[in-house]
Amino acid sequence: MDYQLQMDLEAIHFLISLNRANCTHIIRWLDRLRESPFLTGHARFVDGTGREIQVSNTGRFLVSHWTDHPVKTVRVVKIESTK
Predict the structure, then answer these.
(1) What is the maximal distance between C-alpha atoms in the chain?
(2) CB burial string 13-30: b at 16+ within 10 A, e below
């Protein structure tokens, strides 16, 4: 679908703090998200700007994201452990 993926700095910091196996798990999941930008999360909330944020459970992690379809960009705002 030619969507780009952008990550907030907080999400990048979390990603690079992970061990190699978990980092690879997240990167593969993010690539699938980029290829399927209409994916909805397991939960959602509205942020301070009124934007609906999807929260997807990857099995080990929660990824908060939203898609800006007019500019074909998936924005990852947060990644956190499910534990």
Answers:
(1) 35
(2) ebbeebeeeeeebbeebb
What's the predicted TM-score (pTM) here? Answer: 0.92
Domains of the chain with bracketed CATH: 4-81 (3.30.2310.20)
Q: Which residues contact 7 (CB under 8 A, 6 or more apart)?
A: 15, 75, 76
pLDDT tens by residue, 24-67: 999 999 999 999 999 999 999 999 999 999 999 999 999 999 99
- Kindly state the DSSP code that residue 59 receives in the 8-state scheme: S
For the record, the structure tokens of 2 come out as 């030619």
CA torsion 62→42→52→11, rounded to 10°? 10
What the block records as the tokens of 37 is 């930008």
